[in-house]
Protein 1
Amino acid sequence: MSQLAVWNAGQLVTMAGPARPRTGPELHQLGVIENGALLVRDGRVEATGTRAQIEPLLEPNAEILDAAGAAVLPGFVDAHTHPVFAGNRAAEFEERNQGVSYAEIADRGGGIRETVRRTRAASELELETAARRYREWFLRGGTTTIEAKSGYGLSLESELKILRVIRTLGAEGSLRMVPTFLGAHEVPDEFRGRIDDYVDHVAHEMIPEVARHGLAEFCDVFCEPNVFPIEQARRVLDAARRAGLGVRIHADQFTADEGSRLAALVRARTADHLEATGAEGLAALAAVGVQPVLLPASVYALGLRRYPDARGMIEHGLAIVLATDFNPGSSPTASMPMVLSLAATQMKLTAAESIAAATINAAYSLNRGGEIGSLEPGKRADFAVHDAADYRELAYFFGRDTARAVYIGGRRVY
Amino acid sequence: MSQLAVWNAGQLVTMAGPARPRTGPELHQLGVIENGALLVRDGRVEATGTRAQIEPLLEPNAEILDAAGAAVLPGFVDAHTHPVFAGNRAAEFEERNQGVSYAEIADRGGGIRETVRRTRAASELELETAARRYREWFLRGGTTTIEAKSGYGLSLESELKILRVIRTLGAEGSLRMVPTFLGAHEVPDEFRGRIDDYVDHVAHEMIPEVARHGLAEFCDVFCEPNVFPIEQARRVLDAARRAGLGVRIHADQFTADEGSRLAALVRARTADHLEATGAEGLAALAAVGVQPVLLPASVYALGLRRYPDARGMIEHGLAIVLATDFNPGSSPTASMPMVLSLAATQMKLTAAESIAAATINAAYSLNRGGEIGSLEPGKRADFAVHDAADYRELAYFFGRDTARAVYIGGRRVY
């Protein structure tokens, strides 16, 4: 049995509130305790309050962390990342900024095709080493859980390899990982022109094998007319359902409403991206309560200007989620504070709305709303001490690592 | 006498090249040494090359730093910052994002007026403490020199107080500081409606006193029709010249070409911002070689979309500089890597162009081109070891602190 007390938190942001994802006015309920204190027992929150309230509960050998006036927040839950890949695309990024089109890069074997080739060629150990570097970046921003997608293998063997890397890193306990199988991220070269054959392969060979090994909780598909159109995407997701996996969808990144309609139809847990979503798509998502996962860092990094209509989604009563979309192509950032900054400056969300989207709402989108995403008695003691006196500073000061100490299950991991 | 050797730099970016600010094709000359090594003696660069080349020069007690494959770059020179102020404006930032106009905020005493009030009320020690926090943020991004402006005092006493804080921090040696007097940042409340009286006060009382104490190297003025119009700005700058100060100008942030024309007329060292500059202003700057200091982080943080025309400036043969504009109102970031990211994604500069703008060109804009901004024999050993294998990663991965070790004059400061 072990106890940890954190006190002198200038603000303890608990996110305490109703046991459901937050919408509308609830997005502003951060449950802030000024000069707050947090008591942890055996990895879970025992109590929150003032120092005077938790001191009577302290046992003689309790560890003490003096937050010295800093803001303490629940660990961010980053519900959309692609953290396992070989190499990076810094050179291609530069070419794209100089006006070379993505199609041109893809035609000569660049872009995702290059990452797939390199990831297939990499050993499990090489991928683990790269992913551990990125893991530290997530922690430095105060993230304690990520949803981690495969999708740079696109063959049974290499997708399993990626999912094993996610499992290995998750088991190390320094960053919680929720694995998602994304075999339908792109059609690999060997199936070029034979999308239905690849979809069959994903649906009938890859998904059952992934499920048999317990390597994924969710299945995702990149639904776009020129990648996996609605019909093919649906076949993948139906197979995922049959295998007992939850469903997430890359929807409407470039084309309006097909993906969001599919997400509503299959009652996906989330529809992710939604930059192009129009009124019809929004209404479809709202009708069945699919959670939108918004990825402003990919809009920024691609040099685009159309951000998802977060305000419209909130007005439709949707429980929005914010995530990094960390990946080597369109969103090379692992920083949730950067996403909060983009949400403020480009999407006009308040810091409270963004933080709810990045913690409790994200936790619910991963079926973990009862375990993480807030600091309430009984929940996992996942939290970060930030270099900030007020939670609003996390969205205001930007371009920096804000976390100074990060705990997962009451254990310091950064 | 002390020696330090750095080796196994995956890339040693020396910026070695002609002894003048870089324009056009020279912006791409980074002088990269693959698997490079750097030898430092008594705080200055003794040699650069490969490990084999510097090893014969090593003395028995030399300190060794193994960069383990990381990229080593000259410390960034951030040539436009406002780092000394009390409080912050996180609450106002949120209001502005929610649609409250800056004019409305200013009318009720907010905005810069609030920062001035709080900065006047703060003790020198309080300001030092706040500035030391921000100093660490600069270092974490690999910055080793900043130009530091006053301008939140707007009275003789409080402007001197701010400049003393800059002097104190600079003397601590953990971040080089080049002080700039910006008494003409705004007209203070007590001179409201009497701009000419305030300009007289700045020109005839403040500037001579600042110069007498040796508290500034440069004088800056916020030249905008509704702040300090060209005539008033010129009176300030003429006084600065008479007092022996160099001249920098906040020019064309919102209104085209007045500021840039003035900058050309008075042969300012730099014209800063230039988001609104048109063909006429560009031609004026180019005719006399004023260095443009571009501040994309303020465009981003204000939620605006008009970035300065960096490409046009390069084509005009101008030696562009990139800087953070760190300040609590329009640009709450101290991160030069964040500026490189904005330059890439929003302004379409290459990483090489940006890094030249953020090092050697910036050094020249501060009259220090012979001392800092590159790693060449005889220059100060100011450098950073970054979490990057290739310099292009600094502009590509974003929203993170990239420096893992920072040295100023051969001494580790972070």
Protein 2
Amino acid sequence: MVDCGEATQLQLKRYHLKAQKIKNIFISHLHGDHYLGLMGLLSTMHLMGRKTPLKLYGPKGLMEIITLQLKYSDTVLNYDITFTEIDTETHQCIHEDPQVEVYTIPLDHRIPCSGFLFKEKPKKFRIVKDNLPENLEISKIQALKNGQDVLNENGEIELDHRFYTKPPRKSFSYAYCSDTKYNESIIPIIQGSDMLYHESTFLDEHMDRASNTYHSTAREAATIAKKANVGQLLLGHFSVRYKALEPLQEEARSVFENAHIAEEGKEFILHD
Amino acid sequence: MVDCGEATQLQLKRYHLKAQKIKNIFISHLHGDHYLGLMGLLSTMHLMGRKTPLKLYGPKGLMEIITLQLKYSDTVLNYDITFTEIDTETHQCIHEDPQVEVYTIPLDHRIPCSGFLFKEKPKKFRIVKDNLPENLEISKIQALKNGQDVLNENGEIELDHRFYTKPPRKSFSYAYCSDTKYNESIIPIIQGSDMLYHESTFLDEHMDRASNTYHSTAREAATIAKKANVGQLLLGHFSVRYKALEPLQEEARSVFENAHIAEEGKEFILHD
């Protein structure tokens, strides 16, 4: 989960997502709309009997706030939280598991704020079952999945992986840039990402307001997307002054065609 | 406002209630379902430009939690909060304004917890306009509204308030007892209240569970209502284990007839 505003639990329920399946939570910064739902979510996980440890990533202060609230509610969670305090000034890998690496993206906001870059690791070669000899040893299947040929005792190729496997599926990357001013220093970090979420609080006509409040306009978000040559751009975090969102999308598309409003509940799927 | 769980802002919106009209917020205790919506509400009031001071009443720790969150979001609210820390062990008057007095009700919960008794002050006598002489001085009208006769220079009755006014409307009282075990010591405090909200987390068949978690059963809530001779009883805070709520209401009604489920969004109106 990335950021956790108030009433996130209601949204999880609405979209039939199970809180207990969440293993990692990444919080970009400590403005309320990005983390005020966290304490309630952690409590619910506790009340529902969670035992599975949770990894939590966020800026300085997040764990202090949670700890204080647990103290006054006299609660000892029945699962462990491993908290990683993010240095919001540097780009670094903060999380790694068998599928994904997560990197920070230093953003330029009114308070310390970090985006997150999710990079899928290279995937396994895909076995072509019809071609596979029967009862092949698991070690040989593993070798093929890793893109290696299987050799016989004489060091000759016994199974050529090009015949027994198809190349791995593409590994995708997703960059999440929550609240930030227009900031070109993120471009090398997110370069070539398949999908970029970039805040787009204002229209370009309110550029002064955007700059003063450390936010971006739709055109600025699209400019970052274009310069970083990403696959597609999702726009969000719109000022409540805009009743209609089409103008924000249109403004972005005038710079970067594959731009979309990140509508609540809408799924954007990355695929080959 | 009394207690402020997560997503209270959404509920205010749903029922067309204006956050900016709230002048006083009373928090009974620091379990999440009673206060996690407060920080977001305070932030929204700020972002909407509130200048009107707010009075906040709650147990030790509440202001510390808010202050810490304001610190990390680097926010200085543009309105003042006057915080009154509640002593949850003693029954005392914590708030008074021209209409209402508010008293604490010490409750017996797992952490420090206080209910609130709202007592309307005596109301003014109601002027009978048809009987009133034209162009009567305001001071004389005020005297009549206070239930006083207006005297002439000789100390004789010029205007008998019984002719010019009707008696005041009844002053109502409402007792709110959030999370508590069955606790007879609250009875003298809430004695004769027109309306009592009392938690009713469990059915009597789960009385052990109620006692262990410092909660009450529907029968216990009704017993308190009966012994305190209140006008009507509202039941709430039901365990999620109960899909149907009628059995809770029925159990309460077997002890105290005028008992009702405090359904979300339902209005209960006190009137003569």
Protein 3
Amino acid sequence: MNNNYNSDTICALATGGGISAIALLRISGDRSIEIVNKVFSKNLTKKESHTVHFGNIIIDNKIIDEVVITIFKKNQSFTGEETVEISCHGSKYIQNKILEILINNGIRLANPGEYTMRAFKNGKLDLSQAESIADLIESESEAAHKTAIQHLRGGFSKKLKLLRQKLIDFASLIELELDFSEEDVEFANRNQLNNLLNELKSEINVLIDSFKLGNVIKNGIPVAILGAPNVGKSTLLNLLLNEDKAIVSDIAGTTRDSIEDEINIKGYNFRFIDTAGIRKTDDTIENLGIEKTINHADKSNIIIYLIDASQNIDNQLDNLENLSKENQKKIIKVINKIDLNKNLDISTNEHILISAKENFGTDELKNRIFDFTNLNALDNNNTIVTNQRHYEQLKKTLSELKIAIEGLNNGLSGDLLAINIKQSLFHLGLITGEVTTDDLLSNIFGKFCIGK
Amino acid sequence: MNNNYNSDTICALATGGGISAIALLRISGDRSIEIVNKVFSKNLTKKESHTVHFGNIIIDNKIIDEVVITIFKKNQSFTGEETVEISCHGSKYIQNKILEILINNGIRLANPGEYTMRAFKNGKLDLSQAESIADLIESESEAAHKTAIQHLRGGFSKKLKLLRQKLIDFASLIELELDFSEEDVEFANRNQLNNLLNELKSEINVLIDSFKLGNVIKNGIPVAILGAPNVGKSTLLNLLLNEDKAIVSDIAGTTRDSIEDEINIKGYNFRFIDTAGIRKTDDTIENLGIEKTINHADKSNIIIYLIDASQNIDNQLDNLENLSKENQKKIIKVINKIDLNKNLDISTNEHILISAKENFGTDELKNRIFDFTNLNALDNNNTIVTNQRHYEQLKKTLSELKIAIEGLNNGLSGDLLAINIKQSLFHLGLITGEVTTDDLLSNIFGKFCIGK
């Protein structure tokens, strides 16, 4: 798609906005160099693309700041448009003042995501690549980063375009049949079409299935900590959180907002959920708490069931009966407080022994959690769907494909088959942006931050 | 000064650190290009200074990010050293990961202010200019920005160096006398020396006096709002604050952390202090509140005395007797709630009539506040001292000058005069960095943020 769009010159802050050593303002559009040139101490009009120029931003004979300006000529920038970047001192006053100056000289403040939208409209990125930029910026774990950069690099798009092209080829053969409809010819071999549709169906099924993983990679893999009251659930959680924070702070000078209950294990984020203690009871109020706990268990990929080594272990294991079969499959049994019961005689295959108090056994616990998720399988570069919108369009594609397959099996005529095949193409095309609407675009890019 | 220093290669994040469209990492030192080259997808070793290169940061065959790299060759950068800037996507994961990669390849994380310290040590800036960078970054008002950029541009340094040079010339003549001390000659004309010392004394006095203004420009001009209980002090303050915020938010898309009680009037920040109501009373506890109020008044440059138009005005004016003569000079009398007493018969020269409730009269009030401070006088480009350290060194210089002048008037010999003149030179030199110590430098630059 390359429809016309408003290509006036836009500006925005691309960096964080607070006080910092340096801030970066980005200007994109046909008049970028011309307008910045009016307020810069050196003449930029004849400078080459990809060059850097030190000088002053001057307005009314007053120096606003000493800045470094980078020039990107048309077709050689991120947006595909002529682009100027101003690297200024990171005071809020200066950042606002320079924006104000640019606006007063006829540059418009960019809308959220407008740079990336322009890059898309100029064919620099397809839609799914453009969307992955937002994911990339928000990625907090190695895994989320990995899937985002894979999408940015076009891995996902390439796969979809390949599938779509196969379908387009058949669709045009069917269209051809329609032109000759009175002659009852079949240009599109029905067996081959059936094979293709089934092949597409199974490939799209794999992509749809990957979303479950993609979604947890993006948002953190939920882990519920269950156990009777006072078995040390909060102590364990705090211990894991503190270890994680210590690792992060090893990269000196880098800051990370603490995410209350997220723990990074081997590059993946796990969202730990502390729950109310569970035990057999007839008390109504307590049962409500247990219901909530079971709800947490249902939504988790992993359940850590914590057992107190100093109490009767069998009794505590009995509580697991409260959980559904499905939930029981997710359980890792962890025996805590082994410092209080050092002669414990129990299988260490089935149970992990830890002492949250004495910080013993947490490494093994983390390894077990990681192995449990089977995340290593990710490393073979399978395509993972992470975006809710893509997921929904894939489901719609699948639904159309199923109808087409059914129709084909029932000997439906080409003109009717064509409807569902075209719908499949439409939904697939919406993902990569080969098909698009203004509403869709403003919906996607409106969620971006300003400056991107 | 240009003593040796550790010129190993350093790196740090130069932008805000949070999630943003773009983040900027800065690398400075002899091995900058060599090391970045190891993890970049293109060969940077033969690229020109001030050029920009798009490519990938790659480690273990994995793409970490698509980045834009800018190269500054030795003697052509801010620090004076070979410098590389990496502009990456602003995810916290990517920022930390690239820093980690650089550190693993032998680049050290920069200390706070280390870039600016290197710029100073390489003679790119003098000390007072280097210090002004921290002020520039923190400047929140037009006025604070103006003085900071004036200092960065070297206005203050030039003035000091000129004064110091004059003194050095005399000092060397006196030194010469000491070499010929047995011959009782006077190379340094005592009348001229006396004139010079007095001239210096008066110029330094002006600079010292300017600090009072410089300090309030930097930190906001304190304004106390006084008045009897319930005259509408808080309502007025909220009204002024909201108007200010509305103005700020006019520059769409720019954010500014709200500073609880700071209001910008014509480019200057005023710090408004709401106080407990004052009235004549014998109550001990209430008197304590009044004492605090008077304390606020003492520390303010301006006192807004708020009067309730619907109450007896003379009674309220009587309360002003509580204030010292000094404080009475700072008063702007403001009559509030004129909506409740529209037929009020009172001089509008001496009083400003407002209705905080109906938002009437606030423009006039702000004009009066601004005129009161005589800040317009600033526009004639006088040098303003804004830095506490400079202020203290100027006071020490002055004290030495006074002793020298006294000694001169008492016919003190050259060798004794020389001591105080050298001390004056020492303190002046500490400001611009012509004299310096490692302690001084780590003290100054340690207060900078990392990345500057």
